[in-house]
């Protein structure tokens, strides 16, 4: 495998004393796992945060081997990880992507939607500005993986001027389809990230 591309970090797991195994969403190859030498070091630790956008040079000697990757940071989500709502949204979208997509299968629409939703979280002045993009990403994930948006899911398009309370209700209702179809039985810890975000949204809207 030889690929140089823009990628979105969706997970980073410690490997040995100094390295990490990062999973990255790419437009050409979908979800790709790669070994990042020195990923726990001072220089690369802030680069391999979930949600970050990087330029990745990914290479492996043969098709079955775990690739090595070199990364250059393009856009950092670090400044938003100290804010509960943005941090919850970034963590949830990253965890969902890393957990349910098959590796090395391209989903260009999901790549674009994930990038757009993450950017919305970082530029919108409030959750009302980015929650529609997050909901759109979840619905697209269901469709791309063959579930058609999920039985009982809310209508796909938000109404013009829909307030935060209505958006939170949509988000909560869609959670049943996410849990029953994408995360059924084996990903309770991943769903807990969504439940944490939902709780924060409800407290803000109370």
UniProtKB/TrEMBL annotation:
Residues 1-67 form the DNA replication/recombination mediator RecO N-terminal domain. It holds the Pfam family RecO_N. GO terms for biological process: DNA recombination; DNA repair. This is Recombination protein O N-terminal domain-containing protein. It comes from Qipengyuania atrilutea. The lineage of its organism: Bacteria, Pseudomonadati, Pseudomonadota, Alphaproteobacteria, Sphingomonadales.
